[in-house]
Amino acid sequence: MDSAGLIDLQVNGYAGVDFNDAGLTADALDHALAAMLRAGVTACLPTIITASEADLAARLAALDAAVARSRLGPLMVPGFHLEGPFLNPSTGTRGCHPARCMVPPDPALLARLCAGLRRPILLLTLAPELPGAATLIRAARAAGMLVAIGHAAPTAAEIAAAAVAGATVSTHLGNGLPALLPKLDNPLMAQLADDRLAACFVADGIHLPPFALKAMLRAKGVVRSVLVTDAVAGADAPPGDYRFAGVAIRRGEDGSVRLPEAGTLAGAALRLDQAVRNVVGWDFADAGQAIAMASANPAALLAGLGVSVPGTAPGGTAVAWSADLHVRRVRLGDTDTWSDRHDEP
Questions:
Q1: Is the pLDDT of residue 339 over 90?
Q2: What SS3 class is residue 321?
Q3: Which of 157, 276, 307, 314 is the most buried (most CB within 10 A)?
Q4: Residues 116, 119, 122, 124, CA torsion sign
Q5: Do 269 and 251 touch, CB atoms closer than 8 A?
Q6: Are 273 and 325 in contact (CB under 8 A)?
Q7: What are phi and psi of 80, to 5 degrees?
Q8: Among 109, 111, 91, residue whose Cα is nearest residue 178
């Protein structure tokens, strides 16, 4: 079967390359994007996580320059995802993000980080329970961004207020939450129940047990569900040690990526085509539905901003899938060059 290209709204790095490296080069970015392309991904939002303002500015500038100078960046990267620094620093919610760098919602800081970028920030993840969150959500929306809830522990009322202000997405729903939650009145249930919010899921079997993902997909529905990778440098790369936003991470033999000492999850080693196969293999969706969650659904979110990505128009991009949902060929743009993938695991 053929489909539009896959779109990854949350990818921190790939194939040994860390997108949060202030020394990121165009060649390194092309290496990562080429690997993603072989997995059927034709568009993505490279994701920058919480850091000091100076580090965020340096990392965004390096990423922006690498995109502009690369071969694939102008085709595959319509903009960026800023995950933080406006997150909840509590244990559980912060994940692997540095709590010391988290700050209250600040539209002026966001504007400073956007200034001078050739590619825009298209997705902002924040904690809506923080004072001033609604103001920042409205400012981000006015600046042409999607706003997502993540690394947060909001009440149902705070989630509703965020949706009223303009939030439309949940980042890696089920993760970035306190380990212990009230049985029913909790931020997970409230986000699942709010039809104004699409939900992004990391379908690697590690971030979410498959049975939990099954329940969440049923609650949110296919049309409001988006598959993402939350990938880091260890994705599509051998087990071993890598760097992520200035810290050491380790990809284990089981496919998990963690901080070596704390054991905290630090992104994923997931490929988006594998996420599609997982959802189908677990019998949570058919092939068309799973592919839509990784292509048409994220494309629709970006289209709401007026952003068009390859694959949303006839003849723009095509992915050819085998019967067992392995990517066999990918065409990007209007070229006639097809890439065959020969390195399936």
A1: no
A2: strand
A3: 276
A4: negative
A5: yes
A6: yes
A7: -125, 160
A8: 91
- Asked if the peptide bond before residue 98 counts as cis, ω within 30 degrees of 0, the response is no
Q: Rounded to the nearest 5°, which phi and psi values hold at 134?
A: -60, -40
Please say if the pLDDT value at position 342 is more than 50.
Answer: no
* Residue for token pair 């699409």: 198
Residue type, 282: W
Residue 310 confidence (pLDDT) above 70: no
pLDDT in tens, 153-187: 999 999 999 999 999 999 999 999 999 999 999 99
Give how far Cα 234 sits from Cα of 16, 81, 267, 314, 326, Å.
6, 19, 9, 34, 20
Q: Which residue, chain included where needed, has tokens 């993760």?
A: 175
Which amino acid type is present at position 92?
G
- pLDDT for the residue 309: 82
Would you state the pLDDT for residue 318? 85
CA diameter of the chain: 55
**Angle between helix 133-142 and 156-165 (nearest 10):** 30
Using the 8-state DSSP alphabet, how is residue 274 labeled? H
Amino acid at 138: R
Provide the 8-state DSSP code for 204. S
Q: How far is CA 68 from CA 28, 279, 289, 338, in A?
A: 13, 34, 34, 23
pLDDT at 42: 94
For residue 22, what are the contacts with CB-CB under 8 A and spacing of at least 6?
A: 55, 58, 59, 61, 62
HSE-CB for 233 with a 13 A CA cutoff: 20
Q: Which of 6-10, 80-84, 305-309 has the lowest mean pLDDT?
A: 305-309
In 3D space, the residue among 76, 9, 44, 40 whose CA is nearest the CA of residue 276 turns out to be 40
Cα separations in angstroms, 18 against 102, 153, 181, 309, 313 = 21, 28, 33, 23, 31
pTM beyond 0.85:
yes
Q: Which residue has the tokens 């050739």?
A: 118
Can you tell me whether residue 33 is helix, strand or coil?
helix
Nearest-10 crossing angle of helices 287-294, 272-281: 150
170 vs 151: CA distance, rounded Å: 10
Residue 261's pLDDT is 86
The model's confidence at residue 313, banded by pLDDT at 50, 70 and 90, is low
